[in-house]
From TrEMBL:
<protein>
    <recommendedName>
        <fullName>ferredoxin--NADP(+) reductase</fullName>
        <ecNumber>1.18.1.2</ecNumber>
    </recommendedName>
</protein>
<dbReference type="Pfam" id="PF00970">
    <property type="entry name" value="FAD_binding_6"/>
</dbReference>
<dbReference type="Pfam" id="PF00175">
    <property type="entry name" value="NAD_binding_1"/>
</dbReference>
<dbReference type="InterPro" id="IPR051930">
    <property type="entry name" value="FNR_type-1"/>
</dbReference>
<dbReference type="GO" id="GO:0004324">
    <property type="term" value="F:ferredoxin-NADP+ reductase activity"/>
</dbReference>
<dbReference type="InterPro" id="IPR001433">
    <property type="entry name" value="OxRdtase_FAD/NAD-bd"/>
</dbReference>
<dbReference type="GO" id="GO:0042167">
    <property type="term" value="P:heme catabolic process"/>
</dbReference>
<keyword id="KW-0560">Oxidoreductase</keyword>
<dbReference type="GO" id="GO:0034599">
    <property type="term" value="P:cellular response to oxidative stress"/>
</dbReference>
<keyword id="KW-0521">NADP</keyword>
<dbReference type="InterPro" id="IPR017927">
    <property type="entry name" value="FAD-bd_FR_type"/>
</dbReference>
<dbReference type="InterPro" id="IPR039261">
    <property type="entry name" value="FNR_nucleotide-bd"/>
</dbReference>
<comment type="similarity">
    <text>Belongs to the small heat shock protein (HSP20) family.</text>
</comment>
<feature type="domain" description="SHSP">
    <location>
        <begin position="1"/>
        <end position="92"/>
    </location>
</feature>
<keyword id="KW-0274">FAD</keyword>
<keyword id="KW-0285">Flavoprotein</keyword>
<dbReference type="InterPro" id="IPR033892">
    <property type="entry name" value="FNR_bac"/>
</dbReference>
Length: 312
């Protein structure tokens, strides 16, 4: 709780509620900080907080952790790897994400993170593309797993970064940075009627170094699969690659370099944009397209032109 030390709080549990009471008077400004910081389901009044566990218990019962078995780990670079799993999860929609977890040494607390699927929902095995974070608790544990090891995965998947949420348009633009290429791989491998709605699909993958284009062979295979409907373009920002554009996505869009290279124009009448990855890229690109193209954020209740998903 912001502004309080543990010794300044009385904590108790009563009738499935966690009750937190402050022992000292706080300024109104701290009230606002607390309300902003805490989950919306927590009630704040007179320095007394209550949190009802019922919905958390219900969520766990509806979406429990289940065991997943590691089939193999593919290490692409010192920091990038893919983990292949076998687990009886519920059917998911291409573009959705799951949660993986490993118990800490005392086996009492799970370290968990959200990751998107690379594989199509129709695939028998699961594939997750992960970046190893320096000092990251879970990513380093996952990186060191071996074939036959076990971990936890959520039974049901999450998210609305799926084609069913995308309105009809002529050109679907998919922008990704780093490991955020994963949901697009899942979507494009699955295919189906939702893909057929679009005349053209453009997949843009931006990385720092060319050895991080680990799924480029798959992207090229998908180009053949879609027989001209799918166009791909890679971007490498920190070294020269003759087959990739240099720079960053916002700069390349601002100067129409991507549109000129692909041979298609982005406009609000015939295009929809999907942005996934680095939050800075997502925000900058959205603001740029909003300013230059008058494109707006797409919401479930208010349709627009840009669908976004931050990757951390």
């Amino acid at each position: 709780v912001p502004g309080y030390e543990e010794k300044e709080l009385d904590i108790s549990v009563h009738n499935n509620q966690l009750i937190i009471q402050g022992k000292k008077e706080k300024h109104n400004q701290d009230n606002a900080k607390i309300n902003k910081y805490l989950h919306k389901d927590i009630i704040f009044s007179n320095f007394s907080l209550s949190f009802n566990f019922d919905h958390k218990i219900q969520e766990y019962r509806m979406n429990p952790w289940i065991n997943a078995k590691v089939l193999k780990i593919k290490k692409w670079t010192t920091n990038l790897f893919s983990i292949f799993l076998k687990a009886p999860i519920s059917v998911f929609q291409a573009g959705q994400f799951t949660k993986l977890a490993i118990c800490e040494n005392d086996n009492t607390k799970k370290i968990q993170r959200a990751y998107s699927f690379v594989n199509a929902p129709s695939s028998q095995n699961l594939e997750i593309y992960i970046v190893r974070i320096p000092n990251g608790k879970l990513s380093n544990l996952l990186y060191n797993l071996k074939s036959g090891d076990n971990l936890f995965i959520k039974k049901k998947s999450y998210g609305f970064f799926i084609l069913q949420e995308i309105p009809d348009c002529e050109i679907l633009w998919m922008f990704a940075t780093g490991t955020a290429i994963a949901p697009y791989c899942s979507i494009l491998q699955e295919g189906g009627k939702d893909i057929e709605r679009f005349k053209n699909i453009v997949l843009i993958h931006a990385v720092r170094y060319k050895n991080e284009l680990t799924y480029l062979p798959l992207m090229k295979q998908l180009c053949l699969k879609y027989n001209g409907k799918l166009k791909i373009q890679t971007i490498v920002s920190r070294e020269k690659d003759n087959n990739s554009l240099p720079g960053r996505i916002p700069f390349l869009l601002k100067n129409k370099i991507i549109e000129n290279k692909i041979g298609l124009e982005i406009n609000r009448k015939n295009s929809h944009i999907m942005l996934c990855g680095n939050p800075s890229m997502v925000k900058e690109t959205y603001l740029l397209l909003n300013e230059l193209k008058n494109m707006t954020k797409h919401l479930r209740k208010k349709h627009g032109h840009i669908t976004m998903e931050n990757y951390w």
